[in-house]
Amino acid sequence: ATAVATGLLGLVLSAQAPGTRAAELQKWGVHDEARPMPPVVDPGPAGPPALVPADAIVLFDGKDLSGWTTSKGAPAKWLVKDGIMEAVKGAGSIQTTRAFGDCQLHVEWASPAPPVGSGQDRGNSGVFLMGIYEVQVLDSYQSKTYADGMAASLYGQYPPLVNATRKPGEWQTYDIVFRAPRFDQSGAVVSPARLTVIHNGVLVHDAQELSGPTAHKARPPYKAHAGKLPIGLQDHSHPVRFRNIWIREL
Questions:
Q1: CB 169 within 8 A of CB 113
Q2: pLDDT at res. 11
Q3: pTM metric for this prediction
Q4: How does 152-168 read in b/e, with b if 16+ C-beta sit within 10 Å?
């Protein structure tokens, strides 16, 4: 009950001051093991796949990977079975054939059960907006790693406000509202990328501004890029499963 109350307080404070956590990046180094972990919140049991809005673009319908390629444009080689696609070790990360900018993205995923490994070597994958800005996928149920690399973190930058991870093998949902960065003609940032993330029905990032692209052990600055780019899913050598992926352009 204490963890739930603390988590709800964090959500209220976040809702009052969206995108104001930038001081954290000055206080904590990238992947700092001393950075506090967020409180645990039980999101309740998983439900059936979410309904698809009438104006959404279905990115994975459970039938095939016709809407996905490798980063080099070759056919995606992840496993598709029983309405689910599964990352295949060594097959490489995949990305959508279509490009997107501002969007509402829905992704359902499940980490392997029984769990194997620990920390970052446990149900690792990622959802990449524009192929650049990552919302981490990881089995963070009773498993410790660095705070800015746990499930639903904005990788390398911000942990989620709370840990709303379900048990391994149970379906998880990410509902992401993404605002792409804007650049002027010289390539300077006019407005940074912003993400709102709801993990299993719980708000974990509230219009959070990113300091730049996602990177491992680094926080690089922005580099100007196109206004629309593909959505990516990461192959991190773990058989993470995905279903019911759709997007609404904003």
A1: yes
A2: 42
A3: 0.91
A4: bbbbbbbbbbbbbbbeb
